Amino acid sequence: MLKYILLVGGFFLLIKGADLFVDGSSAAAKMLRVSPLIIGMTIVAMGTSLPETSVSVSAAIVGKNELAISNVVGSNIFNLMVVCGMCALLCPLKIDGESLKRDFPFSIVIAGLLMLVGWLGWTVGRIDGIIMLLLFAGFLIIMISSAKKQQTENGGEDEYKAMPVWKLLLFIIIGMAAIAIGGKMVVSGASDIARRFGMSDNLIGMTIVALGTSLPELVTSVVAAKKNEVDMALGNVIGSNIFNILFVLGVAAAIHPVAFTMANLVDTAVLIAMSGLVLLFCIRKKQLVRWQGALMLIIYAGYTAYIINRN
Predict the structure, then answer these.
(1) Which one has a higher pLDDT value, 304 or 221?
(2) What is the pLDDT of residue 230?
(3) How far, in Å, CA of 143 to CA of 34, rounded?
(4) Residue 8 to residues 4, 125, 158, 184, 185: CA-CA distances in angstroms?
(5) Domain extent listing, the chain
(6) CATH level 3 topology of 2-310
(7) How many angstroms separate the CA atoms of 24 and 50, rounded?
(8) What pLDDT is attached to residue 157?
(9) Angle, nearest 10°, between helix axes 65-78 and 262-285?
(10) pTM of the model
(11) pLDDT digits (tens, 9 = 90+) for 172-202
């Protein structure tokens, strides 16, 4: 019973912590007068991905390496198919042309890089992790450059009502603390439950933990879509997926080499295939519509049934 309490309590801290962090970080970002897409791709994406960071890094530290990989890949599949699918059901998700040409393809390329690295050595080592972190730094530089360009173009036209500095700092600090503690609780609870029911860490990481750590992305993106902030909704998903692979796995691997299994190879290949499908959906009209969102949810449900049967 204690392990279930740890799991539920960990998820609660992850979600509430991420919520506070995003509120504080978004308020800080809005002071800079950048577009919702840039905010979604950077501050919001990194904030909602902190649960994955906490869980995967904690898993790497305690040697639950299979959970670290499956959590990231599972979260990315969930973000892409469920978060985008749910948002598309609410309203058409329009996609920025620059993001379609640069950011979305980049997320597919780095997923391919992860699969290649894993297949070649069946591990993601410290050097691989450092390379991922360098790529992430390059990605951030490009995003910051885009933000500065928008600041110059917007000038003083956009005005944001920001929360007091003390309040946003308090939100960020409390949020990060809750996320760190919640991540450790989830790893401990999920791992013990997996062993009790004879399930592999990969199955738990691909389902329960992936779903739990992706709830901030789901809630944030759905709320953004309902408020017609579709740029922030999609930017959150694409940015989170890039952040998960390059930063989350990069940090985890730099701390401790992360084992890469055949199941991880299959799941990463599925992520690439699903990403390619969604990209094809977007290319023609630069948007995702309701029937495509429904199809994405059906595909995710089918794949979930497959991995449960596989394990």
Answers:
(1) 304
(2) 63
(3) 11
(4) 6, 32, 41, 12, 9
(5) 2-310
(6) A middle domain of Talin 1 (1.20.1420)
(7) 14
(8) 44
(9) 20
(10) 0.79
(11) 788 878 877 887 787 677 777 777 777 776 6
Look up residue 259 and give its two tokens: 């084992």
Q: Give residue 158's pLDDT.
A: 47
Pick the closest to residue 139 from 97, 93, 103 (CA basis). 103
d(CA 46, CA 50): 6
Q: pLDDT tens digit string along 122-138?
A: 889 899 999 999 999 99
Taken as a whole, the chain contains a residue count of 311
What is the amino acid identity at position 306?
A: Y
Spatial distance between the Cα atoms of 207 and 272, rounded to a whole number of angstroms: 18
Residue owning tokens 């799941």: 267
φ, ψ dihedrals at 93, nearest 5°: -95, 100
Per-residue model confidence (pLDDT) at position 6: 81
- CA torsion 166-168-173-176 (nearest 10°) is 180
Residue whose structure tokens are 């809750």? 178
As to burial, measured by CB atoms within 10 angstroms (0-12 exposed, 13-18 middle, 19+ buried), residue 75 is: buried
AA identity, residue 65:
N
pLDDT tens for 244-274 read 899 989 988 988 888 888 888 999 999 999 9
Among positive and negative, which fits the CA dihedral 282, 82, 270, 42?
A: positive
* Contact predicate 273/112, CB 8 Å: no
Residue with tokens 């042309």: 97
Rounded to whole angstroms, how far apart are CA atoms 225 and 56? 28
Token readout for 172 is 């960020």
Name the residue type at position 247.
F
Predicted confidence at residue 75, as pLDDT, reads 86
Q: At what angle do helices 210-226 and 65-78 cross, to 10 degrees?
A: 20
Return phi, psi of residue 123, to 5°: -160, 150
Distances (CA, A) of 189 to 8, 76, 176, 260: 9, 22, 20, 22
Report yes or no: 79 and 296 within 8 Å, Cβ to Cβ: no
